[in-house]
Design goal:
Helices cover 49% and strands 15% of the residues. It is α/β, with parallel strands linked by helices. It has 2 domains: 126 residues, Rossmann fold, CATH 3.40.50; 83 residues, 3-Layer(aba) Sandwich (Rossmann fold). A hairpin with a 2-residue loop joins β4 and β5. The chain starts with a strand and ends with a helix. Bound molecules: 2'-deoxycytidine-5'-monophosphate. 2'-deoxycytidine-5'-monophosphate binds next to α2, α4 and α8.
C-alpha cells in the first residue's frame, strides 16, 4: 500500500517519511527530487524553464535513476547538487507546467509499481493526484517561523538568515499553492498533523499508529 505524506517545505516531511518507511520496511520515495532533477537537467541543457516543451525535451534524453534517495543522471550522482537554492527555484518553476507534471507523475507511479506497490511517498500532490486511492494520507503543516527555523539546517539554506529563509519559503508556498496544476492542498480525506510543537518521534508514532489501524 502507499502512504502519502504531503505538505509544504520545512514541516519535517522528509525526516518523518524516511523514518516511517524504515519502520515499516518499505521504500521511501521523495517526489520533490523528481522535480528537482528535472530542474537541474533543464537548466544544464539551457532550456527555457518557462517553456514546457523545452523542459520535456531536456529530460527526454538523459537516463535518470532514483534509488534509496540517491539521484543519478547518466551515471553522475547529483543527490547533493539538486539541494541548492537555484535548483529549488528551478524545480518550483518546472512544477507549474501541467504537461511536465503529467510526465513526472507517470514516472512516479511507475517507480512505485517497480518497487512492488508498497512505499511511503512524500510530496505536494501525492494524496490529491498521484495516488488518490492511497489508504492513508497525511498532510503535515507547521507555523511559518518553525518551518524557517527547521529549514535553516538544510544545505539549501547555508549562509542565509532565518528571515531570508522565511521569505523564500513564503515565495515557494505561493508558487506551489496558487499554481493551476495540482496546487498544494490537503486531500479531503487526509489526516492533518501540525508538527510545530511535536517531536519527530511523536509524529512518526502517530503515523505508524494510523497505518496500524488500516492494517
Ligand atoms: O519538497 P521539495 O522542496 O524537494 O520540492 C521541490 C519543488 O517541487 C517544490 O517547489 C514543489 C515541487 N513539488 C511538486 O510540485 N509536487 C511534488 N509532489 C513534490 C514537489
Amino acid at each position: 500500500m502507499v502512504i502519502a505524506i504531503d505538505g509544504p517545505g520545512g514541516v519535517g516531511k522528509s525526516t518523518v517519511s524516511r523514518r516511517v518507511a524504515a519502520a515499516l520496511g518499505v521504500p521511501h520515495f521523495d517526489t520533490g527530487s523528481t522535480y528537482r532533477v528535472t530542474g537541474l537537467v533543464a537548466l544544464r541543457s539551457g532550456a527555457d524553464l518557462n517553456d514546457p516543451q523545452a523542459v520535456l525535451t531536456a529530460i527526454g534524453t538523459p537516463r535518470i535513476d532514483i534509488e534509496d534517495g540517491v539521484v543519478m543522471v547518466d551515471g553522475e550522482d547529483v543527490t547533493e547538487a539538486i539541494r541548492s537554492g537555484p535548483i529549488a527555484a528551478a524545480a518550483s518553476t518546472v512544477a507549474t507546467h501541467p504537461e511536465v507534471r503529467r510526465r513526472i507523475v507517470a514516472w512516479q507511479r511507475s517507480w512505485v509499481d517497480h518497487h512492488g506497490g508498497n512505499a511511503v511517498v512524500e510530496g505536494r500532490d501525492i494524496g490529491t493526484v498521484v495516488f488518490p486511492d492511497a489508504p492513508l494520507k497525511i498532510y503535515l503543516t507547521a507555523r511559518p517561523e518553525v518551518r524557517a527555523e527547521r529549514r535553516s539546517g538544510d544545505s539549501e539554506a547555508a549562509g542565509k538568515s532565518t528571515a531570508e529563509i522565511a521569505t523564500e519559503l513564503a515565495a515557494r508556498d505561493h508558487t506551489d499553492s496558487t499554481r493551476k496544476a495540482s496546487p498544494l492542498r490537503p486531500a479531503e480525506d487526509a489526516v492533518i498533523i501540525d508538527t510545530s510543537d511535536l517531536s519527530i518521534d511523536a509524529v512518526v508514532q502517530q503515523i505508524l499508529d494510523l497505518a496500524d489501524g488500516i492494517g
